[in-house]
Amino acid sequence: MTRGPTVRELTAQALSSVERGYDLLAPKFDHTSFRTPDPVLDAMTEALRPLGPFDAALDVCCGTGAGVGVLRRLAVDRVVGVDFSAGMLARARAAHPGGPRWVRADARALPFAPATFDLAISLGAFGHFLPHERPALFAGIRATLRPGGRFAFPMAAPPRVGSPPYWALWGFDAAMRLRNAVWRPRFVMYYRTFRLPDVRRELAAAGFTVRILPLTALGRRDDGTLRCALLVAEATAVTAAATARAAAPPRRRASGH
């Protein structure tokens, strides 16, 4: 039986670059907590279904293909998964034989013609992008979408300030910043830098209008707030600034799941 990675294997990954780390983790990735849970995939599928039908869809930072599974369940005719990790793409091909097209590329330099897709999704990759990198990422995704196309991804509710999960994420990010200050190559993975107000503003600047769809199937917290929601950004006008960011050379690549 295939098991998850050992502490030694996770340490080797953490001391590698993002790309090399995911190549190392790929064979056991689907047996880790890093993979997007099936209930989230199911809820996302049902939330997107009324917005279709979709002709062509892109999974950005597709990892081992969990998001591609969502797209195939939505009966998308043409499905493309893009990732920079050769190891993760190899696992995706094995898990989803036939149909999807797999492309190895930098998420910030997507190799697709403008207005190719009517849906783009991403799962679990945004922590690999520093805040100043997100505008170019969003502009590039916007450029691949047709007018009215949608870019969707789930967002979990942030932990309450002072709660154990809050301090766990704070500690992880602090440890990662220390690691990157003293070790090269860097491994960029931060949990507390992807904040909804910032993301909404950056998406609007890239030419999207944003709405939030509740994922009620995932339940509520003790205070009644939703545990998770789906952010859906609809492609509107492409601004000059967004076009410039989409054309900017990439600095780093990222993998998702």
Give your account of this protein's structure.
The protein has 257 residues and is an alpha/beta fold. The chain has one domain: Rossmann fold, CATH 3.40.50.150. Helices cover 37% and strands 19% of the residues. It has a 7-stranded mixed sheet with strand order 3-2-1-4-5-7-6, with helices on both faces. The mean pLDDT is 90.
Which terms would index this structure?
Class I SAM-dependent methyltransferase; seven-stranded mixed sheet; 257 residues; alpha/beta; 19% strand; Rossmann fold; single chain; globular
Number of strands: 7
Poorly predicted spans: none
Rounded radius of gyration (Å) = 18 Å
Any guess at the CATH architecture? 3-Layer(aba) Sandwich
Q: What is the name of the CATH topology?
A: Rossmann fold
Kindly name the structural category. Answer: alpha/beta
**Domains counted in the coordinates: how many?**
1
The largest pleated sheet is described as: 7 strands, mixed
With helices defined by DSSP (H or I, 4 residues minimum), what is the helix count? 9
**Strand fraction:** 15-25%
As a percent range, the share of helical residues equals 25-40%
Morphology: globular
Averaging pLDDT over every residue, what do you get? 90
Gap between N and C termini: 22 Å
Q: Give the topology string: H per helix, E per strand.
A: HHHEHEHEEHEHHEEH
The CATH first-level class comes to Alpha Beta
